[in-house]
């Protein structure tokens, strides 16, 4: 058994699927499910995988998990346990069920699956599509070290894998799960600032995108240190120094910490609402 089944293949699961195929996974070993037929056709066309819409085949999810080595649940948090219950009778005992969902606990997942089913809770991010993701893994109560190792090695093809206790997932999610959105938000704000300074808006958007992407590439170099890279741009008494001082005066670091706390608190709120 080496097949991988993606159940609920939207933004996040497609990023992982695309990253795995770009890294050499054979598309014939992958099956993806979605709700809508148009979306299934889009995925099949883009990645060469079998993609099945639940609207066309109500048994799409249970059928997809048969003989799968790994099943990756990627619907919205509120739908995860219903999805898990719907596939439970079709799972082989050794199939590892991976969740990418924010806020759905291992206990909630395990309660919806057959007793003893191996489970791994993960928190990936969308740069996985380019092999530049960050993915956390936390093992369920019945998962063997070999099963966890298999999931880690699968995700290593799409980025950096870190193993963390489940108690830290909400905090990690507030930094790396949501983090790509923070970087895109910065690019949006820079583009708007350039336009306000009189640049053509399209030119300003190009400058912002390429600058955030270029800085990201520098951060990805081995041994990169964000503060040292920032200092290398900041000439004493120069222009950047004024900008950073204005950011500090405006409380940007504290605002980012407030945002991350809000994201983690929202995860806890969703977990509680799922019961
Ligand atoms: N987006 C991100 O950056 C991250 C998301 N996550 C987690 O990933 C999960 C998905 O989020 P995201 O990808 O953004 O959401 P999307 O809405 O983009 O994707 C959800 C997908 O699930 C499909 N779907 C819904 N119900 C079913 C069903 N019963 N059977 C099969 N497929 C179904 C939808 O199909 P259709 O398209 O046809 O409607 C859709 O493609 C969430 O739990 C989230 O917490 C985690 C980390 C980062
Ligand atoms: O916004 C969300 O809830 C998901 C989890 C992390 C990123 N996206």
TrEMBL record:
Residues 3-102 form the Pyrroline-5-carboxylate reductase catalytic N-terminal domain. Its EC number is 1.5.1.2. It is an enzyme of class 1 (oxidoreductase). It comes from the Bacteria. Its main location: cytoplasm. Keywords: Amino-acid biosynthesis, Cytoplasm, NADP, Oxidoreductase, Proline biosynthesis. The lineage of its organism: Bacteria, Bacillati, Actinomycetota, Actinomycetes, Micrococcales. It is found in: Cytoplasm. Pathway: Amino-acid biosynthesis; L-proline biosynthesis; L-proline from L-glutamate 5-semialdehyde: step 1/1. It comes from Arthrobacter horti. This is Pyrroline-5-carboxylate reductase. Belongs to the pyrroline-5-carboxylate reductase family.
């Amino acid at each position: 058994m080496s097949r991988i089944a993606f159940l609920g293949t939207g933004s996040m699961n497609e990023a992982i699927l695309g990253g795995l195929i770009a890294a050499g996974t054979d598309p014939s070993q992958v099956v993806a499910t979605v709700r809508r037929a148009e979306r299934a056709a889009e995925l099949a066309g883009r990645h060469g995988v079998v993609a099945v819409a639940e609207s066309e085949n109500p048994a799409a999810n249970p059928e997809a998990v048969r003989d799968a080595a790994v099943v990756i649940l990627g619907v919205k948090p509120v739908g995860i346990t219903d999805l898990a219950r719907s596939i439970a009778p079709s799972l082989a005992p050794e199939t590892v069920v991976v969740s990418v969902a924010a806020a759905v606990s291992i206990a909630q997942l395990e309660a919806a699956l057959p007793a003893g089913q191996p489970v791994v809770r993960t928190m990936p991010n969308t740069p996985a599509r380019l092999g530049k993701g960050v993915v956390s893994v936390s093992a369920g109560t019945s998962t063997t070290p070999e099963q966890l190792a298999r999931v880690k090695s699968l995700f290593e093809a799409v980025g950096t894998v870190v193993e963390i206790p489940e108690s830290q997932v909400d905090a990690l999610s507030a930094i790396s799960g949501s983090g790509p959105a923070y970087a895109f938000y910065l690019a949006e704000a820079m583009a708007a600032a350039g336009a306000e300074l009189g640049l053509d808006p399209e030119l300003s958007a190009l400058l912002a995108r390429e600058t955030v992407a270029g800085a990201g590439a520098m951060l990805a170099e081995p041994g990169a240190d964000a503060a040292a890279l920032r200092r290398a741009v900041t000439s004493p008494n120069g222009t950047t120094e004024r900008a950073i001082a204005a950011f500090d005066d405006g409380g940007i670091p504290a605002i980012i910490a407030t945002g991350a706390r809000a994201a983690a608190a929202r995860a806890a709120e969703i977990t509680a609402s799922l019961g």
